[in-house]
Every structure is written in structure tokens, then in C-alpha cells.
Design goal:
This protein is an all-alpha fold. The model has no long low-confidence stretch (mean pLDDT 88).
Length: 206
């Protein structure tokens, strides 16, 4: 009995992966608007009702990867054991993430960017995710700066700059042959050069 739930959880995770892979392949090939959930379920080898249990609609399925990456980010930036400043953490996060996403040459990720930027339903979901990234960066920067995070504060403005810069680099990467990792890191370097002086030295641990 003790292994029943772990096995069930593993099967659910495997089914979700099959659905996501099928969705990515079809969305890239056909486009968001004309792809149906029935097609995706068939390609994944599952019943459409099984797909609905994992993903209630096409918008949620299409943005699954972004939501999964955000959850990883949230876990790590809120880790009480983290000691890096927000600038160091964000630089490392972008470097590792973009290096992983472009490790196969980058064309599949470029296709993914094209699909999501061309479809308002996906962009709406991504806007919500982006706001949550900004909130977490803002709270972390506020701690670094020794400031309150509320309102139109310096932590909020700097968080917005970090995200806007990353968004700009991604839009360039979609249409230009640029080094995504180095360009994204350069944005963080530029923002830190302007606002790094606001970071307060941490008190030594007792």
C-alpha cells in the first residue's frame, strides 16, 4: 500500500510529460489557433478526458513550461539558505536557464518564442507569470537595499528593469542570431552597475 501513491504520482508525471511533448511538437508545426486538444491527446496516446484532468484548456497547456520554470525560480529565490545578492542570483539563474534551453542549438526554443509571441491567449498567461517574477525580484531587492518593497519604490523599479531587459533580449533572440546567454547576463551587469551601490552589506552570522 505504501508504494501505491508514489507509483500513481510517477504515472501522472509521465502522462503529463507525454502531453506536453505532443503539444510542443504540434503547436510548433501547426500553430496555436488551429491546434486542438483532441489532436494533442491523440498524439500523446491518451484520452482527451485524461488531458483535461492535467490541463483544463489549451492556454494552460501552451504556457506550462513557463509556469514550471517560474515554480523552480520561486523555490530558489525564497530559499532561506540563499546568500547571494539578487543581482548575483538573477544573473546565475538566467545563465543556467538559457544555457539549458538552448543546449540543443536553440532552434526549438526560438520556435517556442515565436509561437507564444504570436498568440494573445498565451501572452495573457505570460503577463501574469511575469508579474509574479517581478514581485519576487522586488521583495528580494528590497531586502538587499534595506528598503520597503511597497509602492513605486526603487526595488520595484529595478525589478522592472531587470525583467524588461530580459524580455528585450528574448525578442531579439527570436529574430536575430545573438548569444542569448551573454546578452541576458550583460543586461544584469548594466543594471547592477547603476544600482549595485544600493545593496547593503549583510551582517556577519553570529
Amino acid at each position: 500500500m505504501s508504494t501505491q501513491y508514489p507509483l500513481r504520482t510517477k504515472r501522472k508525471a509521465e502522462t503529463r510529460k507525454k502531453i506536453v511533448r505532443a503539444a510542443q511538437e504540434i503547436l510548433y508545426r501547426k500553430g496555436y489557433e488551429v491546434t486542438t486538444l483532441e489532436e494533442i491527446a491523440d498524439a500523446a496516446g491518451v484520452h482527451v478526458q485524461t488531458l483535461y484532468r492535467h490541463f483544463p484548456n489549451k492556454q494552460t497547456l501552451a504556457s506550462y513550461g513557463d509556469r514550471r520554470w517560474f515554480e523552480k525560480f520561486r523555490e530558489r529565490i525564497t530559499d532561506p539558505q540563499r546568500t547571494e545578492t539578487t543581482f548575483v542570483f538573477w544573473r546565475g539563474w538566467l545563465e543556467r536557464t538559457f544555457r539549458f534551453l538552448t543546449s540543443d542549438g536553440g532552434e526549438p526554443y526560438r520556435q517556442y518564442l515565436t509561437v507564444r509571441h504570436a498568440n494573445p491567449p498565451i501572452l495573457g498567461e505570460l503577463s501574469s507569470i511575469r508579474a509574479r517574477y517581478e514581485d519576487l525580484l522586488c521583495f528580494s531587492l528590497a531586502e538587499d537595499f534595506g528598503m520597503a518593497p511597497g509602492g513605486l519604490s526603487k526595488p520595484r523599479l529595478v525589478a522592472g528593469m531587470l525583467l524588461a531587459g530580459t524580455t528585450y533580449v528574448l525578442r531579439r533572440y527570436e529574430v536575430e542570431d545573438i548569444d542569448l546567454v551573454s546578452e541576458a547576463v550583460a543586461v544584469v551587469d548594466e543594471v547592477e552597475a547603476m544600482f549595485g551601490h544600493l545593496v547593503k552589506p549583510k551582517a556577519p552570522a553570529e
